[in-house]
Amino acid sequence: MSKYKIKKVETEQEMTQFIRFSEQLYARCPYYVPDMESEIREYFDPKSNPGLEFSSIQPFLCIDVDGNVVGRIAGIINPVANQTWQVKNVRFGYIDFIDDIEVSGALLDAVAEWGRAQGMTRIQGPMGISDFDKEGMLVEDFDKVGSEVTIYNYPYYPKHMEQLGFQKEADWIQIRVDVPKEVPERFSHVSALLKKRYGWRVHKMTSREIEKEGYGRKVFQLLNEAYQPLFGFSKLSDRQVDAFVKKYLTLVDLNLAPCIVDKEGNLIGIAVTMASLTRALQKSKGRLLPWGWYHLLKSLKWKHEDHVEMLLIAVKPEYQRLGVNALMFDDLIPVYNRYHFKYAETGPQLEDNEKELNQWRTLNPTFEKRRRCYGKEL
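The chain above was modelled as a monomer; its predicted structure follows.
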């Protein structure tokens, strides 16, 4: 008889246990960066998460004989992604567990059974509903601090996955670059050439454009186009777009989010970057009250941390490989210096996305924090 049992999360109290288990598990880990509690609650709430209009989700807890939570996981089925890629995948996300193979195995079995009951034939993860959710289990560089947009986990996690028969489906890596004091000549030269030859230019969005004139929607429509070929991607619905506009674009400092437009003003590229919230989230423990709001506001508005998160960069497919990124870097590097950022770090990027990775070569990048999506037949 097992000393553990799996329980579906069905009550507010159980959801609180689900959310706060990671706080217990990583209480002494200086590299872990918590999610905002409020955001996790909204993620599982159909009224707040438009992705749940077409996707289904089920969180689970693993409980020991004394009633203590020893693991958590969420099963996710995204029919749009499955139809796009012609698969029958149940995804798992929000996976955390103590170092006991019986716990990790029970959690993944619970998602597998839940998915199998709905006709799924394969399990994969960690992934979310959309490509803008956290994805990929950390498999290297466990001694480096995480970020607000990435998963951190202990070194024993990938060992469990391999023991349980899961195999690699995709890897993401992050790129770290020191902010140069001057714009590299290659970027400034290409930027000047594109401005002169094609009339392309940098445009900084305004709050009015985002909130009243639909510019935020244009940004995410561009992302839908640019990211379409990427692993696991599925097109965002209009309601998802509106939610992401509110979540990201109304929060970032617009000086750090250059748009590239053609001579008619049409959007052809975008870089969304943001002062890191790593230390603020660690201090707040993922809660706004009582003083979490102060730490977050301080990092965003008053005293920036020493690095910037490059959340996403996207270029319309027909303009890729034409040097659009040079315009972005030509604009961002002087801004980063004014803000006293010492280095920049990207979000996870697919290891085989050569177009994305090659743009960093001029900046002498460091490739680190490899993350992996695992898969297994049911």
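Residues 289-295 have pLDDT under 50 and may be disordered.
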